[in-house]
# Entry
Amino acid sequence: MIILRRLAAGAAIALAAFISVGASAPPSAWADGGAAATATAPASAGTPGDGATDGTTVNSDGTTVNSDGIPVAPTDPPKVELVLDVSGSMAAKDLGGMTRIAAAQSAFDQVVDALPDDDQVGVRVLGASYPGTSKTVGCADTQQIVPVGQLNRDDIKTAVAALRPTGWTPIGLALQDAAKDLGNDASSRRIVLISDGEDDCAPPNPCDVARSLAAQGTHLVVDTLGLTLDDGVRRQLSCISQATGGTYTAVTSESQLSHRLTQLVQRATAETVPPAAVSGASSCASAPLLTPGVYSDREDAQADRWYRVTLAPDQELRASASVAIDRAVDPHYAVTLDATGPDGSPLAAGSGTGAGRTDLVSAGLRWSTGGSAGRTVCLDVANAFSGAASAKGQPGFPVQLTVDVVQAAPAPSTRAQGLGAGWLFLGVLAGVGLITGLILGWLGRWRIAIWRTP
Amino acid sequence: MTLTDPTGRPGSPARTRVAGRARRARALGAAGAAAGATAAALLPLLLAGAPAAHADDSASASASASASGGTAATQPGTDFLSAAALQPGQQATGSASVGDYLYWSFTASSGQQDTVTATVLLPPGSERHGAEQWRIDLYDGLRRVQSCVRGTPVRSAATTDGSVAVSCTLPRVRDWSENWSNDPLPGTYYVRLTVGQAPEQDLGLPVSAQVELDSSDGPVQPAGASEVVPLTLPTQGPTDGSTAAADGSSAAADGSTTAGDGSSASASASPDGLSGARTVATGFFSGRHSRWWWTGIGAGVCVIAGLAGFTLTRHPRHWFSWNQPPERPAAPYEPPYEQQSYRD
# Structure
């Protein structure tokens, strides 16, 4: 019995020793996790700059680069210009008993009251001054009545209230001038076009004008509001909005117009910083070097664009490319994003395919250096769009490329696979322990009983 | 084999039962005290160890929880960058036009399974020109299309229908996956709601949409993996000069500093205290070293159970013993527990 007691005491000491070992060992185990987690932030630093504070320059192609030639995001506040059609047809009285122009004026009043003071808003009108029949004069009839700048409610209300339905509908020219009003200083730019008629001054086709304007600047979106349900107007306005990634709304009442207009202007001025413009190369060797961030570019149908990213050891590259479909294309399409080494060896690939109506097709990939030395990775964004897309003389499709570099996560440890986990496992161990204890106890009693048997 | 009491005397059943119950209670109490002491010794380790590893998680969760919120953000965005944040259990509504692409985003953590349900209130049937097919598409943080494991992501509405509901349940989010795989990982997910096929004349008509996100937690797979950095890409371009790389990495690390209005990344809506306690428990039961913890504690439980079983059989008059306890009718009182032992 004394022996058994000593055994029990020994087991208790062993248990205490296990607990104290547990007390000393786990902190180191947790400490690795903590170290790995905190190492994430500094380790994912890409190519550090040399401390330039504000050495940005805007290239001729609209890209903003810092003193190292690396593209950076612009920081100007978003701007919005409202373009109002004041052509003769705006006198039609079909919006719930109001004329179209009266509904527009009322909506403008409500919008400017709802906006915050520091919004950058301007107003341009088209067809507001020339009532004659000369196409040459009528198609040049567009004026900016409130310049883009700090919101001035009284100016806007006064200027808009004075408008009377008058002339022609030079939408293409008005869009071109509105883009000029907004400037090209790499801020987020938005045009809201309110019209009730088809452009009667083509060429240029306003849809093509919108597409080429969007391709010139860093970020230009045209939202359109149609004050009539006419088929031609709808086709033209929805084409303009699709060409720039905007929205088209058919307005049938004054309250709908003011609600939607407010929503669009708020969306425009709340816009996040637009992506940095970059111009991809036709091969990896000459490709621009990218740091983590969002970039925008253009690429032709059936073409590809190359970029480069530098990775440190044990880092993971994450990239996502989406190509917007800003014109009619054949119904089946694909976008591929490939990561290759500088020598062209394939590393990773992602693809996105689709059919039918869509605004964009996107693909993404992950690739890590696998703990070896760092290396340069080339990214290739390619598309397989066909049909009307291949028409010459049009700007390329908008590409948005997002690059991120993070700490690679190690694969699950196989060393611990021989261990157990879970409540069932715990229950089995407890049961086995209990049964073993009982058996040992009974065996002990049985032997004592045998010893004591005379 | 005959089992006899060491004293060789038959016991009285009634007395045995009472005494046995009392001792059983004492023995169980002792075992319970031992287990309690073990637990008390281990608990501080868990509490001390876990926060170190998960401090960054809870920090980012609280940071993004404070950044998100407000009802304005529920108005859907028009692309991935402007996607409005969606919170679990919250219903986001938005007004739009037929043909718009409406984007929301939400953040999923590992072990979570999310269901997105969207209801579109259609314009009056008299204004529509035919059946409209509405669809919901889900993208992960790398903007890869995710397939639904359940739900009806595409549904057609006839002109007689006033609304159409589409839904999609994503696969359960995993903790880690190979680089080349398409497995769902923690991070941002995007919801895109739009009309797939519709008569051209319907474009531009006003609609309103309600989107709801339901999340359920479950087991984290694979076991023993360290969680990947959440798939949350930067939402803005690189900033100027020397800060470019640092900003990019911090945006990647927690995803909460990326957008000024907090619309791009947001964490679960659970309060900090709850989520803190949950991460401690989750870290222990499913963290990278969880198997070591489970096995170590299992060994301790095994030892305790063994000792308890052994103790139960070591005393006379115990029901766990085959031997009948000694009957001592002459004894005027029960000797104390400590004094009861075999004289060997």
Notes: Chain A touches chain B through 139 residues (CB under 8 Å). The first helix of chain A runs from residue 2 to 43. Residues 1-54 of chain A have pLDDT under 50 and may be disordered.
